[in-house]
Amino acid sequence: MKVRFAPSPTGYLHIGGARTCLFNWLFARHNKASFILRIEDTDQARSKKEYLDEILESLKWLGLDWDELYYQSERFQIYRAVAEKLLGEGKAYKAEDGSGAVILKMPRKMVRIDDMIHGAISVDTALIKDQVLIKSDQSPTYNFACVVDDNDMRVTHIIRGDDHISNTPKQLVIYEALGYKIPRFAHIPMILGSGGGRMSKRAGATAITEYRRMGFLAAGLVNYLMLLGWSPGNDQEIISLPEAVPKFDLINANKTAATFDMKKLLWLNGQHIRSCNIDALSGLLAPFLDEQSFAKGVNFDGKSLISILKLYQERAQTLVELAQGLKPFFVQEVEFDKDASEKFFSQGLTKEFVLLKDRFMALDDFSAVKIEEAFRAAVAELGVTVKHLIHPLRLALSGRTGGPGMFEFIEVLGKERTIERIERAMKLFKKEGV
RNA sequence: GGCGCUAUCGUCUAGCCUGGUCCAGGACGUCAGCUUCUCAAGCUGAAGACUCGGGUUCGAAUCCCGAUAGCGCUACCA
């Protein structure tokens, strides 16, 4: 068995293409079949190297590896020879306008597609006009090159988007004219944008690279994509590529178009970030951290970075969000949330903060447990509630109102910086008072 | 317009082939509560769907027909 994914480098690899590729890949790995990648670059004018590179790069990133790689642009002689044969047999003719185009005579008949997902589909070729095989510039048309290649490359199962259903009868006629063995077809449903129509730039991002830039994990995106139009048959939602291989079956593929839902993708991505090995996550995060201006020139050793990362790993849905979350640890002076500082820094907490500072300073063992003990002792001594002090303290130390548990945060921040930040906040108290 | 495909909660889906166990299950999202130093997570609960109309049948989400709607194709693009 053999399958293929055949992208055209006339645009970036988008969500729909990636899903088609994923299904082919899963089918191949499940059946121990080979998976080939065929670049359909017959349109010289529209095909671009940058798109090709982008497609290859995206597929690698997603983890969809191929066994063979072909370029249609290198096979023009083959298509011409096959067209010549059809010409000789009288099954095709040259365009009357002298342009050099080769056109297939459309026989009058009913063609039947036996689709693995849709079942039998019959089409009357009387509704289809004669098909151009070779264009006047001597390049092959899509339907022709596709048939010649699938036969030549011994593709047994053609898994593609169901927007190709109406191309299939045209191709079937070519198969028959050439006496080729007809492969199995499986037309998988399309992915719709939130508006209901095709995914487009307008409806949001469509390029895979775009999702990568937004901080999605390949594992998260692939997980989401495989759930669009397929289900493992039970209620499992979180599933990795290797896990999906033994379970994948086109029998469980849907017939209905699916609407892309960013919210679910985000949730799934968050799940994958949470279950990601911390060292691996640190590596994945690096390029995103580099893009944060606050991270410029700041270098943590791997161990410190990981302890910081642990504080935020469960709190982010994307790598971008995660990188941004780390800010309080990178900056010298935190930027205070405006509303919160107006609220918390005008409560006259100087006495309380001084006590906290003293107690923290006195700690030899600056661990979360000891920090919490010291904090709670101070709170008890002052006769106030934990909440009364912890929120202003969080703001003083992180500049924010939300975030990791306070004591873990303080431990990772370290004694010196904690003291510094408490002192700086107190200066702002005075300002408020004046 | 013609031809084709499709039709279960707002969204992704399970169930449909082999009618009854489905007054339809799960997930995202939404809302409420619990937990908690906040946020997130987690846990509990709620609201929320078989497109419509005809058949067939004792019985239909499941089978058949029709309508409607959505999408796709209708290029010397792929």
Global shape: elongated
Major sheet summary line: 3 strands, parallel
What's the helical proportion of residues? 40-55%
Class of secondary structure makeup = mainly alpha
Give a short synopsis of this structure.
This protein has 19 helices and twelve strands. The model has no long low-confidence stretch (mean pLDDT 93).
Explain how this protein is built:
By secondary structure, this protein is mostly helical. 49% of the residues lie in helices and 12% in strands. It contains 19 helices and 12 strands. Strands 1-2-3 form a 3-stranded parallel beta sheet. Helix 2 (49-62) links the parallel strand 2 and strand 3 (68-71). Helix 10 (278-290) crosses helix 12, helix 11 (302-312) runs antiparallel to helix 18 and helix 15 (350-361) runs antiparallel to helix 16 (368-382). The protein is elongated. It starts with a strand and ends with a helix. The structure holds one RNA strand of 78 nucleotides.
